[in-house]
Amino acid sequence: MLRVGILAIHNVVDASQHTQSEGHDALHAPYQDPRAPHQLDIALDALDEPDTRLNTLRADPTTAYLAYLPHSGLHNQRIALENALTLARLLNRTLLVPPARLGPKTLRYVRSSTLARMLRLSDKQQGQSHCAYIPADIPPPDECMDYMAYTLVSWAWLVDLRPIEAQQTLVRASNGTATWIEERLGVRLNETLFLPDTEPYEYQFVDTSAPVREGDKYLHIISIDTLAAAPQRLIQLGTLFGSSRLRLQKADNRRVRGETRRHMVFANAALTLAAERIGKVLGGTYVGAHVRVGDGRFQKGARANVRVVWWKLVREVLGVETETALGLERRILSRIGRVMATDDGDDDGEEEDDDMDEMMGPPEIPADVPSLRVPHPSLPPLPETFYPKLTCRSRLHTTPALRRLNVPLFIATDAPEGLDDLLLAPLIGTFPCTFILGSFKAETAHLEGLWNGYDGLRLAGYLAPIVDALVMGGAWVVVGTEGSTFSRYVGDVLWRVSHGWDIVERG
C-alpha cells in the first residue's frame, strides 16, 4: 500500500470498456415557467451533445479529455461530478459528463471494470422502449424488470452549468464506453490512460507534496501536476466520490473547487417553482428537517438519529430550555408508548420504560466544526404567530415556553409510511404543523406533466428528493441526519446559497 509520495502512472488498458448506444431524438421540450428568471434549454432526453458538436470535437485531434464512472445515489453522484469538474479544470482537460441517475435502484460502488460494465448495461436504448408502455397490472417481461426503477437525465437539466462552462469545456456523454468515445470523439484505446480502481478510496489527487495526514483513508496519492503532464488524449478514472478525494492546498485551486460547489445548486424552473409554491403555503417562515431512516445504517440507527434531530430543533434551533425539553420528550414518548401498546394489544409498558431509561438526558451532539468555521449572519427573528395555509395536524401549543414549536416543520424523509411512520412520531407529536412533500399535491401538480423522452417515463416520482432539497433550502433553518450526503448538501450549500451566504466546504 502506497501512502507517501507519488504513485507511478501506467498506461493500463481496462478491457471492460464497452459498446456504443444508439442516439435518440429530443421528444419533449423542457418545462417553461414564464415567471422564472432562469430557464434551462436542455431537453429532457439530451444526454449527449448534438451530433454537430461531436463531429467538431472529433475533427480536433488536440482536445484532451477526462472521464470517470458515476455510482450510488444522486448526492454521491453530485460529489463525484464536483470533483471531476474541479480536477478537469486543474488539468486543463475537457470533461465527459455522464447523466444523473435518479430513482431507488442505484449502482453501488464496485471495481471500475465491473462498474463500467454495469453502466453500459444500464443504457435503456437497447431495444427496451416498449417497457415504458406496459400496463402496471401486467407482469413485465424479463428485459423490463428494472426499467421503472431508475431514469437518466442530463445534469444540465437539473443544474445551471453555464457559469462553469464559461470557465471550462464540458461534453455531455450518455455512454462513456471506449467504442462510443472512439466513434464520437475519435479517441482510440492507445491514446487512453486508464487508472482502474478496485477499492472505493484507492486514489487521492493532491496539488502539493505535503505528507499524508494521520487517518487518511486513500491507498494511493497522485500528484495533479504529474497527471497534468500525461500525454494521452483521454484519462479514464473510476470512482471520484468522496469529499476529500481532492486534497487541495493552493489557494487558487481551492477557489476553483469552491466556485464549482457553489454552482451545483438545483436550478430547474419546474422544480424551483414547486419549492416556491410550497414555501408560500407554509407561510414563508418554516423550519426544515431531513430525517433519513429507510435503509442501511440509517435504518439501524433510526431512533437515535430522530432523537438527535428532535433535540437540535427543539433545544438548539428554537431555544427551548433543557428541562422543559426533557419533560416534553418524556410526555411525547409516553403517549407514543401507549399508542404502540394499544396497537399491539400489550399494556405492560416494558418498551415504554426502556425508552425512558434511554432518555435520561439530552443526547450528545458533537459540534459541526467545518460549519462553525464559516459563520453566517444572524437569522431574522421568528414571528410570534405563524400562518401556514394548510390545516395543522394537531392543536397548537399555548404554553409560552413552547409556542415556538408552532412553527411549520417541513420534513424531507424516506420513512416508508410518511407522516404515519412511528419513527417520525416524536417530531409530529412536538410540532403540530408538520408536513412532508406529499402534503402539497396542488403545488407539485405541474410536475406530473414531465415525461422523459429518453425512456418514456413520467418523472414526478424521481424528482421528489430534489424538490425536498429545494424546499429545505428555503427554510428559516435546516437540520439534517448525521452522515447523509443529502443533509450535507442542503445545509452546506443549498440553504446557504439561497440566503446569499458563503458555503461550507469539507475535505
Brief write-up:
The protein has 507 residues and is an alpha/beta fold. The chain has helices spanning 51-58, 74-91, 112-121, 155-158, 162-165, 178-185, 224-228, 251-263, 269-281, 296-300, 302-317, 322-344, 350-358, 369-372, 425-430, 460-473, 485-498, and strands at residues 65-67, 94-97, 100-102, 151-153, 170-172, 192-195, 203-206, 220-223, 234-237, 246-247, 287-291, 409-413, 434-435, 477-479.
Give a verbal description of the structure.
The structure is a single chain. The protein is an alpha/beta fold and 507 residues long. It has helices spanning 51-58, 74-91, 112-121, 155-158, 162-165, 178-185, 224-228, 251-263, 269-281, 296-300, 302-317, 322-344, 350-358, 369-372, 425-430, 460-473, 485-498; strands at residues 65-67, 94-97, 100-102, 151-153, 170-172, 192-195, 203-206, 220-223, 234-237, 246-247, 287-291, 409-413, 434-435, 477-479. It has a five-stranded parallel sheet with strand order 5-2-1-9-6, with helices on one face. Helix 9 crosses helix 16 (460-473). The chain is globular and about 75 Å long.
Helix content: 25-40%
Strand content: 5-15%
User: Runs with pLDDT <50, length 5+?
Assistant: 1-31, 33-42
What's the count of strands? 14
What is the strand arrangement across the widest sheet?
5-2-1-9-6
Helix/strand/pairing category: alpha/beta
Largest β-sheet summary: 5 strands, parallel
Number of helices: 17
Radius of gyration: 25 Å
**Kindly, what is the distance between the CA atoms of the first and last residues, rounded to a whole number of angstroms?**
22 Å
Shape: globular
Mean pLDDT: 87
